């Protein structure tokens, strides 16, 4: 199994992403690091601890940043509910580890316990880890980032995707670190839509019942506010791509993030011009440009519906 750390802000889709990672039996989740985003870091940490215990897994959770490197904190309670988890509270006995998220990441990478970080949240924890010990962090083989947008409109503003808008300074910093980066942008996540008719495909069971409750809450925003036929599952898709890389095709791109601007804060700035501009582009990230939506949704539903419980 591929050893990974999941950097997240649970969050409905982050919680579903953790469920997929654990139940897939294809990833060894070495740890979960939490941050602000969909809710405060206090809520996201509680939600992470709760979902881990709900799954019967033994995964350390490290609490991270409660705000961006610069600027004010945002949240998405209008999408995820006041506690970030549709108002659902999952009991847990475990507590977060004593280490901060950035130290947890550095220590696990330095020890060789993890070769991939999956980030489905603002990149503050990861930026701080690179700032604190870049030499250790360069041992990382892969950083998979749910964030940004190339041609799609933004999610929190007209041009900015939520995770990049949440901490554009961290996003810009991380994009220029010397490790391999795979970007899963809104261009791809918006092509995978979980529709109301898909609920009937879940097999009975406590995990699929929780997943359905979370998705129904989440779906209201996307269907009522954005007029979609259902809802995307961006963070779940990102984990799914790590498990099944054949789901996507990628293109190497030059990407930067706007850190200021009254209207453009958090905007992904991609070199899209042709000819000599492309030849001179200083590419820094592989970007997913196509996806097999039906294959992913089928895999997600089957995995969440699985009755297997063993996790090591």
Element layout with pairings:
Blueprint: E1 2-8, H1 12-23, E2 27-34, H2 41-54, E3 61-63, H3 77-80, H4 101-110, E4 116-119, H5 124-132, H6 134-137, E5 142-146, H7 162-166, H8 168-175, E6 181-184, H9 186-189, E7 193-194, H10 206-224, E8 231-232, H11 234-243, E9 248-253, E10 255-257, E11 268-270, H12 276-279, E12 285-291, H13 293-305
Helix pairs in contact: 1-10, 1-11, 4-5, 5-8
Report the C-alpha radius of gyration, rounded: 18 Å
How many β strands by DSSP?
Answer: 12
Strand order of the largest sheet: 3-2-1-4-5-6-12-9
Within CATH, the superfamily carries the name Ribonucleoside hydrolase-like
Q: What number is the mean pLDDT? A: 96
Count of helix runs: 13
- The dominant shape is globular
What is the CATH domain class? Answer: Alpha Beta
The CATH architecture would be: Alpha-Beta Complex
Q: Unreliable segments (pLDDT under 50, ≥5 consecutive)? A: none
Separation of termini?
A: 10 Å
**CATH fold name, please?**
Inosine-uridine Nucleoside N-ribohydrolase, Chain A
Describe this structure in words.
37% of the residues lie in helices and 17% in strands. It has helices at residues 12-23, 41-54, 77-80, 101-110, 124-132, 134-137, 162-166, 168-175, 186-189, 206-224, 234-243, 276-279, 293-305; strands at 2-8, 27-34, 61-63, 116-119, 142-146, 181-184, 193-194, 231-232, 248-253, 255-257, 268-270, 285-291. α1 runs parallel beside α11 and α5 packs across α8 (168-175). The longest helix is centred in the last third of the chain and has 19 residues, at 206-224. The termini are close together.
């Amino acid at each position: 199994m591929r050893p990974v750390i999941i950097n997240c802000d649970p969050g409905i889709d982050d919680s579903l992403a953790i469920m997929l990672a654990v139940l897939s039996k294809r990833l060894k989740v070495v740890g979960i690091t939490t941050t602000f985003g969909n809710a405060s870091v206090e809520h996201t940490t509680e939600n992470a601890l709760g979902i881990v215990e709900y799954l019967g897994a033994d995964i350390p959770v490290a609490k991270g940043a409660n705000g961006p490197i610069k600027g004010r904190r945002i949240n998405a309670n209008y999408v995820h509910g006041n506690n970030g988890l549709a108002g659902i509270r999952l009991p847990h006995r475990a507590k977060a580890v004593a280490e901060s998220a950035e130290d947890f990441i550095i220590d696990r990478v330095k020890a060789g316990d993890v070769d991939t970080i999956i980030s489905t949240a603002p990149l503050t924890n990861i930026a701080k880890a690179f700032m604190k010990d870049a030499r250790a962090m360069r041992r990382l083989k892969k950083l998979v980032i749910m964030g940004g947008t190339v041609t799609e409109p933004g999610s929190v503003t007209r041009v900015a995707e939520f995770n990049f808008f949440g901490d554009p300074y961290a996003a810009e910093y991380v994009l220029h670190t010397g490790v391999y980066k795979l970007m899963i942008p809104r261009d791809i996540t918006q092509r995978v839509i979980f529709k109301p008719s898909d609920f009937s495909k879940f097999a009975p069971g406590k995990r699929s019942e929780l997943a359905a409750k979370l998705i129904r809450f989440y779906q209201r925003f996307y269907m009522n506010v954005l007029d979609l036929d259902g809802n995307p599952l961006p963070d779940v898709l990102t984990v799914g791509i790590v498990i099944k890389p054949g789901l996507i095709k990628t293109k190497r791109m030059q990407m930067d993030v706007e850190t200021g601007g009254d209207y453009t804060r958090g905007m992904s700035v991609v070199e899209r011009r042709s000819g000599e501009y492309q030849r001179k582009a200083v590419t820094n990230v592989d970007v997913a440009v196509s996806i097999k939506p039906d294959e992913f949704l089928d895999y997600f539903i089957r995995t969440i519906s699985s009755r297997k419980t063993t996790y090591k």
